[in-house]
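Q: Joint fold for the lines below.
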Amino acid sequence: MKPRSQFRLRITKDAEIAIGPGKVALLEAIVSTGSITAAAKVMGMSYRRAWLLVDSMNKMFKTPVVDAATGGRHGGGTVVTANGMQVIECYRRIEADALKISARDIKTLSRLLRD
Amino acid sequence: MKPRSQFRLRITKDAEIAIGPGKVALLEAIVSTGSITAAAKVMGMSYRRAWLLVDSMNKMFKTPVVDAATGGRHGGGTVVTANGMQVIECYRRIEADALKISARDIKTLSRLLRD
DNA sequence: CACCGTTATATTCCTGCGTATATATCGATA
DNA sequence: TATCGATATATACGCAGGAATATAACGGTG
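A: Joint structure:
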């Protein structure tokens, strides 16, 4: 079938993942939904897992990537900070650049696969 | 501490990984040791796991990536085929190119991390 | 000041991955 | 032809990661 290639960039600190594809996608889901709960649902993961990922990101970066609020009319919500947006943009740009520069070799590799 | 960034390119076929960082490293270990058994030890994994990885690669590529022999003076051994060598080289070249083109952005991202 | 939906957090359970282990087979060489 | 080390394969066990579940706290708004 169609071999799908994907880059997975990870930046690791002390044997734990600072940022990777899953965390970036989660951040993007928070941007578009406005809450961790809804983002978790979109991503198909439990709220707990989503919260743990968000929490670890906030701890690993100098500046938090999200700003979570409890209470309020709609119970609260979570917004991605300017710093978080920069992380997303930078990560996606790296991905796009890497994919572009390697397109030829990736195709070569894919062609070696059985159909 | 020192944030270490790593690219992990995967080429996926039907939701299973055709080639990725672990399999490439295993192939390289087979090149340098001449057997699955020794390569598994070097990689710190069980023989079973190593054999399963090798087996899946041989099945997914049009041409086998290794040639395994049983019996003989030293019990046999496994050599990486020309096709396997091409897979390794192509994969490593993609990695190097991607890392090079993204060096600046990766540094930017790393700097956002806490020390 | 009661309501509501979200964040925050703990506990329990389950499942899949990998290890460990055991066994059969192979075949060049001494 | 007996030996020896590697391949090939099956079974059972352990464990970490994630899901499911439960509960408390929060704070605008009506």
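Q: Anything notable?
A: The CA atoms of residues 3 and 46 of chain A lie 29 Å apart. The longest strand of chain A covers residues 4-13.
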